Amino acid sequence: MDFTLTDEQALLRDSAARLLRDRFDFGRRGALLGEGGAAFWPDIAALGWPALGLPEAVGGMDGTLVDQAILMQELGRALYVGPYLSTAVTSAWLLCSVDGKHAESLLEGIAAGTLTVTLAHGEPGGRGILDVPGTKAVASGPDTVRLTGRKRLVPDAATAGKVVVTAQGDGGLVLALIDPAGQRQDYRTLDKGFVSDLDLDGVDGTVLATGAAAEVALDAAICATLTALGAEAVGVAEGALQHTRDYVAGRSQFGRRLGDFQVVQHRLADMFVEIEQLKALLLHALSVADQPGPDRLRAAVGLKVLAGDVAKRVAGDGLHLHGGMGMTEEMPISHYYRRARVLEAQYGNTGYFTRAHARGLT
Amino acid sequence: MDFTLTDEQALLRDSAARLLRDRFDFGRRGALLGEGGAAFWPDIAALGWPALGLPEAVGGMDGTLVDQAILMQELGRALYVGPYLSTAVTSAWLLCSVDGKHAESLLEGIAAGTLTVTLAHGEPGGRGILDVPGTKAVASGPDTVRLTGRKRLVPDAATAGKVVVTAQGDGGLVLALIDPAGQRQDYRTLDKGFVSDLDLDGVDGTVLATGAAAEVALDAAICATLTALGAEAVGVAEGALQHTRDYVAGRSQFGRRLGDFQVVQHRLADMFVEIEQLKALLLHALSVADQPGPDRLRAAVGLKVLAGDVAKRVAGDGLHLHGGMGMTEEMPISHYYRRARVLEAQYGNTGYFTRAHARGLT
Amino acid sequence: MDFSLTEDETTFRAEVRAFLQENLPVDIARRFARGYHPPKDDLKRWQAILHRKGWSAPHWPVEHGGPGWTAMQQFIFDDECALADAPPPSPFGLRLVGPVLYTFGSDAQKAEHLPKILSGEVFWCQGFSEPGAGSDLASLVTRADRDGDHYIVNGHKIWTTEAHFADMMFCLARTSKSDRRQDGISFLLLDMSDAGVTVRPIPTLDSGHTVNEVFLENVRVPATDLVGEEGRGWSYAKFLLDNERTFNSFVHRSRRDFRRMMAIAGAEGGALLEDPAFRMAAARVEIDLKALEWAVLRMLSGEVPDPVAAASALKLKGSQIQHAILDLAAEAMGPEMTPLYPDPEDGNGGALPFWTPDEAPGLMAQYLYRRAGTIYAGTSEVQRSIIYKQLSRG
Amino acid sequence: MDFSLTEDETTFRAEVRAFLQENLPVDIARRFARGYHPPKDDLKRWQAILHRKGWSAPHWPVEHGGPGWTAMQQFIFDDECALADAPPPSPFGLRLVGPVLYTFGSDAQKAEHLPKILSGEVFWCQGFSEPGAGSDLASLVTRADRDGDHYIVNGHKIWTTEAHFADMMFCLARTSKSDRRQDGISFLLLDMSDAGVTVRPIPTLDSGHTVNEVFLENVRVPATDLVGEEGRGWSYAKFLLDNERTFNSFVHRSRRDFRRMMAIAGAEGGALLEDPAFRMAAARVEIDLKALEWAVLRMLSGEVPDPVAAASALKLKGSQIQHAILDLAAEAMGPEMTPLYPDPEDGNGGALPFWTPDEAPGLMAQYLYRRAGTIYAGTSEVQRSIIYKQLSRG
What we know:
The complex is a heterotetramer, with two copies of chain A and two copies of chain C.
Chain A: H1 7-23, H2 26-34, H3 41-46, H4 65-77, H5 84-96, H6 101-112, E1 117-120, E2 136-139, E3 144-155, E4 162-169, E5 172-178, E6 184-188, E7 194-210, H7 211-250, E8 252-253, E9 256-257, H8 262-287, H9 294-321, H10 332-345, H11 350-359
Parallel strand pairs in A: 1-4
Antiparallel strand pairs in A: 2-3, 3-7, 4-5, 5-7, 6-7, 8-9
Chain C: H1 7-23, H2 26-34, H3 40-53, H4 71-83, H5 91-104, H6 107-119, E1 124-127, E2 143-147, E3 150-157, E4 168-174, E5 185-191, E6 197-201, E7 212-222, E8 226-227, H7 233-246, H8 251-266, H9 276-300, H10 307-333, H11 363-369, H12 380-393
Parallel strand pairs in C: 1-4
Antiparallel strand pairs in C: 2-3, 3-7, 4-5, 5-8, 6-7
Helix pairs in contact in C: 1-4, 4-8, 5-6, 5-7, 8-9, 8-10, 9-10, 10-11, 10-12
């Protein structure tokens, strides 16, 4: 084992951090996010980040989930909002596990930075990404299905070029490709993310995969998504810790800097300890990222549990240590906290994934 | 509502505290407990404490569970070990709910301080006091049953004059009275308490109550026991806090008194907060103590949950704040901790009672 | 000890409940139940209704317009109001400045302000905190310089809840320099419509508008609006803050929130409410909440050996329990907690997403806003220090 | 990054496992599995077996008798030993004083002591803590006064684990006065059979005998038993403590304890193991434990930006996880955790109660003894202060 970053990985980390600092700094972030979900995408596409985890055959850079995790960590630290996760992680891992020309041409678009794709999987009343979809798929042509159902909290659908829908067909799970037009409502999450509801009322979709093949592809997408979220959580928590450390170093109460109070110091230390744990578990999940099977899913699920807990706790402690100032829109910590709070609940909350993990406990 | 102690109650509290300080101080405690479980009982009997909660008709003082709780609190603070709870609370409340001359004469003995009685209810593999007993009772005479089964962790049976056994008969629950002789093994608990296993291999017992009447009596005993344990936990936790406060005020590290460190101060404050909560919930349980029914049981169960948690946490924090010294037999805190740790598990642990409480949640 | 409610108290609870049923406007209750901050108009209407009944200031002495209730009656009243989703009146007039005025104010001040506080005609806000003086209030720098029969007030207040709709502000300002930071501070009443008062909203993490900055530039305050003696404002502020702390257990609101949390967990087939682990977590919080309720009753009964430490304990534990309940509610809501829902009661708020669960809007706005529970009115750290100070004496 | 175990490492694990299966005496493993402190004879026998194989000091350099393993091999070895219930060797010789001696000791000291540490012939104990110097080690007062070619040592050491069966002690004593408390301290080796050495047991809350007080009265220590330079003992002690901290994650033991906890919960029909809430709590701890395992691997790989803070984090989190696992085990045991069970392996311990569950004896002895996990080798508070110091630099 060797946990050293390769030169390329170190370069990726540093250049990502630099770009985000320069072009997506906290001052500019609000404005960029007001413009819409993909406002910052051209920058990301220009750097080739969407191609990072894709095979060379489709124009990708043949990277691994490790590379994507390095990037997600920096995106988390910068409180990035946009379709990187949904397109370059969730959809890309799904499409890479699917055979056929459709998937290939979609991957080429993603790698080129000209196409964003999202997965429409969650449904109203659903608890998380491991749920079985209730949307129905009925064959409507040699290569198409008619889809009926409701998709909820679909990330980045407003700006996506294509949407992959999960549904139940006669032969089990169906992955079908649709255009994101139609009955769609776009809205925002607490952390300024972009999500949509899709009302699928007999929409025709192109079949990407069915049955066992579809399950394999969905499993790959789920594992990659949860692991990348874990990496993002590391960045979010580290960002929250750093902002808090700097704040308490500058802020005075009762004639002393907040950072001089022992209880403040020790709380920061606890935040550090939690982050160390999360970083370590991320390594575990990455270590099995290219080995499909129950161990990979179990590692990804465990990581999501810890990521949600740690991000929520660290950002919550940071918020508290900021006192009243932390409650304002103006302070980055309030945004770290909201991102952490949403991250914990996205794709299934800590309770949901702890239950899933507990089922496999032996 | 009026939570002021009556003059009699304040007198009881003060005189109990004084007697325990004088005769059951920490230095003498070890020796007294080496002598056997009832070594301190003559002092207690002489003061009439066993008569406290009993009706005047049997020679009691017509007190209530409030009076017994006041005493239990002081017993907890003094780390008392002995048959007060098993005799004067558990057995007395059970016997007061049972008709007939047997119960009356037993109560007279208890009130006079000449008899200790214990309830043999728990069994091997059992999880707590709400379990249904597996011991069998078969009629063997007009007023007697033959008992077959195993009783585990029976408190103070080694010194008890009589034992009330719970068992299953044809008509449901049976409460039967036996002598504590026979197949018995005595041993100690971690907190120096006295317990016994009873191997009932066809022992004859006198029937005290059966069926619904037995259930009512057992319910009274359970509620009183759990509530009194809650009161004891208050005393244990307060004692642990006080010893810890005094210790950190005297002990120096890094050139400062331990009590000057903010993290130490705040941890003591948290201990105080937990105790305040427990004291308040004890009032709630006491407020319904003489009203049989599901609300009383629910209050007693909730109190046991909080009592176990608070005693364990407060004594554990106190232990930690004592540093290495806390690990020694010599320091009272190590005994508070063991008492707290046993109290949490006795009659069913926090998980057991939280499950029971959760079942009734609406 | 006597645990029984008097017959009066049982009757009283029924009376309050009946009154609320008949008089609390359903639209006000519905809006408040959502969890968003109540609009001024709701607060005003509801207080006027209470005032007509003589119930607008439960904790005030009879001579100043209070109903003459016992502490237990006040507890019952607050409890019934919370369970009926009646918005608690804005605290700044009734809970905070009112008692200061009837205790330390001049006859003229009493005559002018108390009736309008009772009736809800005049809304107040509190000008204590400043950018450099949060938990450490004594480091405030706002100045009030005497100029004839006026003070000229200059300063910058922050975290001023409801300043955007308040008519009056009570504030602390320095009237003289002193070695002891607590000295030389005065307690002034100030008209928000005065020249030189500028209110700027502080957008908060719940995406709502509740708190503000208030800039005071050469605001002329008549000397008759000084409360008590010049330079003794710190002691009046301490009196006020001690009053405030006693009432910061959040117990009534938390009882209501617990009920709402259980409703969320029971919605949609009650999947989570049937989950044994969730039930255990909820049971554990219910036990804490019951203990908190009795801790408040104990406080009201006056039977606590150390009321200062006990009040801090209530605030500390109360804010923890509040968080624990809202955390369970968020857990029960699952991924549906993540959207930024517009207030369905606010015509300008925009459309709700398709398939929004009934209980979802407002939950997270409330959740995020209540994060301040461990900060305002003395952070948890300040409370712990108060408690230790008391403990180390004992 | 490369996550794959080398082929060597996979082979190595199999080799260690096979060796343990063949060579670990079953009675030693059975005794150790109980959770009581292992008797000296077990430690001695087992270390002799390891020594014959050349495996008694995995972390020592080859030139001093180590096997030349990588950090990863050491991890695998410790892990397999824990899973096989092999008692870890007494740390005082191998983990603590050994590295000090081969780094700072004289040739004569190396030649005399290292072989006997390797073989387990000589047992050591650590004379650092004193009644007035626990976490704050620099305030120690034991004196070593030079007298010709000897030091005369006087002092009172406390918390001396295994002193009652140790042959040698390494200790800190003041050889001169100095303004800086850390100066003037020397690092001495001392024969426990010397005149003037008195060992008195400290009965601990687990009712076992592990730690002691050691009284040193005019003990004559040859000057050749001074390690390194006089007065520089503090730096050697810091070297030793830093080594110790790195290894205090308790990860291997906790993995074993987790397995035992699951066995307890699954016993008697697995009532608790089937309980969803208990399973969730266990799953949550398993996740923490897995993270801890990878945190140790990360540390071993040398890829941590701040190894000082990371080592403190491992100690802090490791002790928390250890408690959490033992708490779950106690919960699983139910009321059966309350008796003071005699060690069934100890002929003089007395009879077990009727119907004692197999897994019960030893659990609480271990539980209570391990409460010291947050205290020794730097309390959790000391670790947090170390971490903050590093953080505030970064």
